[in-house]
Design a protein that fits this description.
Layout: E1 12-19, E2 23-30, E3 35-42, H1 49-65, E4 72-79, E5 82-83, E6 90-91, H2 103-111, E7 116-119, H3 120-131, E8 139-145, E9 149-155, E10 158-160, H4 190-194, H5 196-207, H6 213-221, H7 225-249, E11 253-257, H8 269-277, E12 287-289, H9 296-307
Parallel strand pairs: 1-4, 4-7, 8-11, 11-12
Antiparallel strand pairs: 1-2, 2-3, 5-6, 8-9, 9-10
Helix pairs in contact: 1-2, 3-9, 5-7, 6-7, 7-8
């Protein structure tokens, strides 16, 4: 769709960007939540900061070009990291090329208007609580299990950010002090255990050849011993990581997102493993698959653009 092919008349609109390591998505929402326009483009963390910055700015400008000049609109961006409030630089980003850069001010300079940036797991959790599997629950912990691993906390419809902007950063809790090194500088983080990249690295370190997460899961199901051992370890780590989380937070529900949330065994064998590790002998916490798929983050980004503070 060419951006100059239509002009949308709307008094208020919201633009959301979901900035991922493999794809970037933009959405344009009317004030009633109706989707006016959306687009995806491939991104690659190896392209570097300037290339990613350019893609994001272009996609925002393309969405804005569809609007009447009378339309007031906001811009929200979900990123795999957070903005340090003291320096305004990106930190803790799984897409490491973003770290140490003034992403917010750079985008604002390029598009000529303010933007609001939040962690992508916050955006995912907010969207699932408003439109998806988390509706109706008071305290929801949203989990993203994909290339990396993150989390967000939503309480009565509002995402908790915290004074350090790290509320829900469960992916960087160190579970195995002498485990695999994480990009954050610690060892044995949740992300090294139950993300796609973490499981793939563990398989390579154990067996000396590369398989993707999809290949490991598929071959485990057909009885390959190496893959089955790795997959069983993954399910046990999933149970230990989530069981500990439930013991601390005791949420009303957990919603799983990201590519690994499509693994059916998480909702059977994985939940049984969680029960082994949670500090309760009759665990009843719902562990739910997302309902919005990989669209959740971009909806949440648009809403955070409307509601979040700087």
């Amino acid at each position: 769709m060419k951006t100059d092919s239509i002009i949308i008349n709307s008094d208020i609109a919201a633009i959301g960007i979901d900035l991922g390591g493999t794809k970037t998505e933009v959405i344009l929402l009317a004030s009633n939540g109706h989707v006016l326009w959306r687009q995806r483009r491939p991104t690659n963390r190896s392209d570097g900061y300037d290339a990613i910055l350019s893609i994001v700015a272009e996609m925002i400008n393309e969405a804005a070009a569809l609007l009447s000049h009378r339309t007031n609109f906001t811009v929200g961006i979900g990123i795999p990291g957070s903005i340090d409030s003291s320096t305004n630089l990106v930190r803790n980003a799984n897409s490491t090329c973003l770290i140490g850069h003034p992403l917010q001010s750079d985008i604002e300079r390029l598009i000529g208007r303010p933007v609001r940036i939040r962690n992508d797991a916050d955006c995912f959790t907010l969207a699932e609580c408003h439109l998806g599997a988390g509706r109706g629950y008071g305290l929801v912990f949203g989990v993203i299990m994909g290339t990396g691993c993150g989390g967000g906390i939503c309480i009565n419809g509002e995402v908790r950010e915290g004074p350090h902007r790290i509320a829900g950063e469960w992916g960087h809790q160190s579970m195995v002090p002498d485990g695999a090194e994480c990009y954050c500088g610690n060892r044995g983080c949740v992300e090294t255990l139950i993300s796609g990249s973490g499981v793939e690295n563990a398989f390579f370190n154990e067996y000396g050849h590369h398989l993707t997460m999809d290949e490991i899961v598929t071959q485990a199901r057909t009885g390959d011993e190496q893959c089955k051992k790795t997959f069983d370890h993954f399910l046990d780590d999933f149970g230990r990581c989530l069981g500990g989380l439930i013991s601390i937070l005791d949420p009303d529900a957990i919603v799983l997102g990201g590519g690994l949330s499509n693994i059916d065994e998480l909702y059977s064998k994985g939940i049984e493993k969680v029960k082994n590790y949670a500090f309760h002998d009759k665990l009843c916490t719902p562990i739910l698959k997302n309902q919005l798929g990989d669209s959740a983050g971009v909806f949440g980004a648009a809403w955070i653009g409307q509601t979040a503070s700087g």
